[in-house]
Write a structure and sequence with these properties.
Elements: H1 2-7, H2 12-39, H3 43-47, H4 49-54, H5 62-81, H6 93-118, H7 122-146, H8 148-151, H9 155-176, H10 184-210, H11 215-229, H12 233-243, H13 256-282, H14 285-293, H15 298-313, H16 315-328, H17 331-336, H18 341-347, H19 360-389
Helix pairs in contact: 5-7, 5-9, 6-19, 10-11, 10-13, 10-16, 10-18, 11-13, 12-13, 13-15, 13-16, 14-15, 16-19, 18-19
Amino acid sequence: MTWIRRNLFRSVWDGILSIVFGAIAVYVLWTLFEFVFITGRWEIIEVNLLLLLVGRFPEDQLWLVGTSIVALAFWISAASSGSPKSLDSQPSLSARILDSVQRFGLLSALGVLLILLAGGITPLYWGLAIIGGILAGLGLGKTRRSIAARAKIPNLLWHAAIIAVPITFIALTLSLSTLDSWGGFLINFYIAIISIVLSFPLGVLLALGRRSTLPIVRVLATTYIELIRGAPLFVLLLLAGVALEFFVPTELAPGPIFRAVTVFTLFTAAYVAEIVRGGLQSVTQGQTEAGKALGLGTSKITFLITLPQALRNVIPAQIGQFISLFKDTTLAGAALSVLEVLNVGTAITKQDDFLGQGYIYESLAFVGLLFWVGSYVMSRESQRLEKRLGVGQR
C-alpha cells in the first residue's frame, strides 16, 4: 500500500491519471486475451503452419532444416558457455535456473506453442533434439572451462571448431536443396543471420576507413557510407530486383535471395560503420597516448586498445541495428518477391477455405509474434552482454 500511495496516488492528478491509464491498460489486456483465447480463429495457422515456417521446402528434406537448427542451438550454447573463465564464483543453482528462464523462457514457450499447433509426435521429437543440442553445447563449454588442458585452447580456434558443425549442416542443406524452395520464416531467419555476420566486419572496416589518415581511403569510405545511408532500403531492394539486369546478363544475375542478402549486408554495414565510429570517438585520446608510450604500433593500438572499447560502448546501438535488420527482412518479399513469412501470411488468407472471412488478423498476429519473440530474445541477450562487460559502469 505504501508503494501504491507513493507511486500511483501521490496527488489528485496522479490518482486520476493512474485510474484512467489503468482502465485503458485493463481494456487492452482483456481485448488481447479475448482475441487470443476466445474469438481468435487459429485453424488457418494450424493448417498452414509448415508453409509459414519453411515455405515450399520439400517435406522429404525437412530433416535437413531440423538438423541445422539443432546444430545452431549446439553452437550458440557452446559459444556462450565455453569462455575460459574462473569457476570460483559460479552462481547458485537457483540463480542459474532463474537466469535460464529469463533468457530462454519466451523462446521455449514459442517452441511449445509451435509443437501444439503442429500436432503429432514428430515435432515433439525435434523439440527434444533441440534441447539435447543445447545441453550438449553447455556440457562441452563446461568441459572446456573445467579441464585445464582444454581451457588453454585459443578462443579463435575454439569458436572456429564449434561453428564448423552448423556450417557443415547448412552447407549440406544448400547442396541437397535449391534456394528457390526456401521460404517462410526460415528464409527471414537465414537472411538476417547471414547479413548480420557479413555486415559487422564490413562496418568495422568502413568505420576505420573513415577515420584513416590516408585521404583516398577516407574519401572512399565516407562516400560509400553517405550514399548508402541516404538511400531508402526499399529502393535499394527494388533496384536489386529490377535494375540489376541492365548491368549484368540475365543468365549471370544472382537469385532474389542472394540479392536480398547483398543489399541488407551493404545497407547495414553503412549504419554499423557510423555506430562504430561513434564508439571510437568515445574512447579518450589518453588511451591512444598510453599505447604509444608502451611502444605499440598504430594497428596494435587500434585492434587491442581502442576498437575493443569502442565496440563495448556501442553494444546497445549495434543490437538495435541488427534487430531492425531482422524485421526489415520482410521487405524482401515486397521488393524481390521472396516467399518470406509475411508474404506467406498474406497469401494463405486467399485460400478457398479462408477467402473473405477476415483471417488476416490471425495471420498477421502470428507473424508478429514470431518477430517479436526473436527481437525480444536479441534484446535480452544484448542486455546480458552489457551487464557482463560493465557497459555504462565506471
